[in-house]
Amino acid sequence: MNNVVSDPYALYRMQIGAWVKERMKRTPNVLQIPAKGLDIFVARDLLTRDECEQVMALIDKDRVPSGLLSPSGDPEFRTSESCHLRMTDRVNIVVQDKINHLTGIQPAHGETIQGQRYAPGQQFKPHNDYFHPNTDYWESMQRSGGQRTWTAMVFLNDVEAGGQTWFPDANVRVTPRQGNLLLWNNMDEYGQPNPYSLHSGMPVEAGVKYVITKWYRERPWTPVPA
Ligand SMILES: O=C(O)CCC(=O)C(=O)O
Ligand SMILES: [Fe+2]
């Protein structure tokens, strides 16, 4: 039952979807990607080469095997490495501020940026970034800021082969380009989970792929211990 009683933040999710979309359409250097059923944009050269290199070095220092909110029976489901980027490193603050400034979403709603690294053969199979009700993690996600709305992702390097971000149902495949940001709405125009936002990090075939991810919530993000 999705009504104002059981789901009081649906209106916020609708509004932030429409508002960010309009903002992106008016932003120089931002392109809307033609997609089926999905609002998705690229901002070219959001980060400088130097910023990308600094963040890649920090990811290399802290990376550990990536986790999943729900256990998957498939050991190949998400094989990359990840880390939380520390706000004690100046470059991470600069980068996060750039992303917040571009999207215009209240900074408090953003989870802190994370780094992801994929070696050859590594991937993240098709998944949704939004949270699914009736899961073990749902209650704890409600306590930490609720549903995810927009996802921002920055490619930190060009990849020799493979590693595209693929939205199979929206019919979009994006090739990693250093410094470019990809931004998509995980909710539909009614503020409900949008199945067209299904996406994967395709296997890297040659070289290594580094990205930053940042997820925005429907309420201020308040990390809670697991
Ligand atoms: O690496 C990619 O291209 C996608 C990453 C992703 O979907 C995620 O971290 O949630
Ligand atoms: Fe994702």
Automatic annotation (TrEMBL):
Pfam families, A to Z: 2OG-FeII_Oxy_3
Keyword list, A-Z: Dioxygenase, Iron, Metal-binding, Oxidoreductase, Vitamin C
Domain Fe2OG dioxygenase: start-end pairs: 109-218
Name recorded for this polypeptide: Fe2OG dioxygenase domain-containing protein
Cofactor requirement: L-ascorbate
GO molecular function, one term: L-ascorbic acid binding
Gene3D superfamilies: q2cbj1_9rhob like domain
UniProt keyword annotation of Metal-binding present: yes
The keyword Isomerase is annotated on this UniProt entry: no
Transmembrane spans: none
